[in-house]
Amino acid sequence: MPLSIDRRRALALASSFIAAPWLVPRAGRAAEAWPVRPVKYVNGFPAGGATDTLSRVLCQKLSELSGQSFVVENKAGAGGVLGADAIAKSPPDGYTVGLGGIASNVLAIGSYAKLPYRPREDFTFISGMWQLPNILTAKKDLFSADLKELLAAFRKEPGKYTYASAGFGTTLHLSGEMMNSMAGVQVRHVPYRGAAPALNDLLAGNIDLLFDNLPGSLPSVRAGTIRPVAVTAKKRIAELPDVPAMAELLPGYEMTSWAALVGPANMPPDLVAQINALAAKALNDPWVKQRYADLGATTWPTTTQEITAYRDSEEGRLLPIMKAAGIKPEGGG
Length: 333
Known about the structure:
The protein has helices at residues 5-23, 50-66, 81-88, 102-111, 147-156, 171-183, 195-203, 214-223, 269-283, 286-294, 304-324; strands at residues 39-43, 70-74, 96-101, 123-139, 162-165, 188-191, 209-213, 226-231, 256-264, 298-299. By secondary structure, it is an alpha/beta fold. Strands 1, 2, 3, 4, 5, 6, 7, 8, 9 and 10 form a ten-stranded mixed β-sheet that branches. Helix 2 packs across helix 8. The longest helix has 21 residues, at 304-324. Residues 1-5 and 10-29 have low confidence and may be disordered.
């Protein structure tokens, strides 16, 4: 027997109520719980360096606050590009995040002719994490650690001396090439797969100089096993008040490293908000702030909009400096 019009309407209405929960937009529903399992944090530099130490401090606090483990995975190579690529190609579910920032999301653009990812579009910029200056150090038996004397020697014997960095296209590489360009010298660049092996070779006397993030070299400086030459901040820093800023002899010289917590593109906004809130809570924790300060770094929590805009501004500022310093895109990421 055919259904009456009234019965058909009633059944249709009942069906609409059954389907309604599935039709409610995501923004109208409560955010899904996160994290409910361990989170992988990818660091594109090797264990033992400054980025590794700072990342592990933060991940320890994130683990304590969330009740889930944040596991650091070091995927070193190509100045952070390999690690960034692993993040970019991960599912946007919040269970793979990691280290982004000035090296892999800005300087890589001017360093590599071809990258395996798009430095802006293939990432979700969740929060800032830290900022820190770089430092130029010398092996213990180098003839001098005085910046003025070193620059004079570099000018006298072009190409004789070497400086190491954590890799091609890093802020450490740019710090060295800015010195070469602004001082009119030729100190040969020796790139390593991360700061830790570069520091080991400086300690062994196999290279003359090293540009490093401050936290990586500060313990060795304090121990007297390497000698500080200059910092790349605009002015002298509180941790090493007797060490000059490069800008004292090279006006306008300034280079600050910064790091961002990033995930792959297309992460749901409510998930990004949860991770950002957790990161802010961790970065504002007194223990984390003190540990960072002890290492010469400053905690740097931001909104997602602020860190995205900052990345954009750094690209506009630094790519012309790279070009002026003679850094040309080469190879592939």
